[in-house]
Amino acid sequence: MAAARQRLRRYLDDELGACCDEDVEQRLDELATLEAGIGTAQADAELDVLSALASETRYRLVRVLVAAGEELCVCELNAVVDVSESGLSHALSELVDAGLVDGRKDGRWKKYRATNRAVALVTVLEGSVSADE
Fold it and tell me: CA dist 111 to 34, 57, 91, 103, Å?
């Protein structure tokens, strides 16, 4: 922590032309306020969503469901990803838990649909990639 404080002091000295202990303390207070504004619960929820997208299988499932714009049966999703039935079930369960996918039973079939959160995330990701090209 002392090294981080020293780096902050050097940075503020460069930015302000001169820096004293009060400047460092004031900036540390401002940064603590920013961090508190994010909220631990909110950050944890966002990390859960990002974590759910951090596997190729789960990300492909979300992308397919967003592109479909409608419910797809597990059997259809299984044709898209090369995983076992239990692997598919586990992946879909994680996506449901993260709020990216909704599932419902339809007779003997299980159907899934992308949530608005998933659509928004995929839209942002698509925009960020195409903006860089």
Answer: 41, 17, 14, 6
Q: What is the pLDDT of residues 70-116, one digit of tens each?
A: 999 999 999 999 899 999 999 999 999 999 999 999 999 999 999 99
**All residues at 6 or more sequence positions from 103 whose CB lies less than 8 Å from its CB, including other chains:** 92, 96, 110, 111, 112, 113
pTM score, two decimals?
0.73
- Amino acid (1-letter code) at residue 103: G
List 112's β-bridge partners, or say none.
Answer: 72, 103
User: Helices (H) and strands (E) in the chain — how many of each?
Assistant: 7, 3
C-alpha to C-alpha distance for 96 and 114, rounded to whole angstroms = 9
Domain 46-132: give its CATH code: 1.10.10.10
Domain locations in the chain as residue ranges: 2-38, 46-132
Which residue shows structure tokens 């369960």?
A: 93
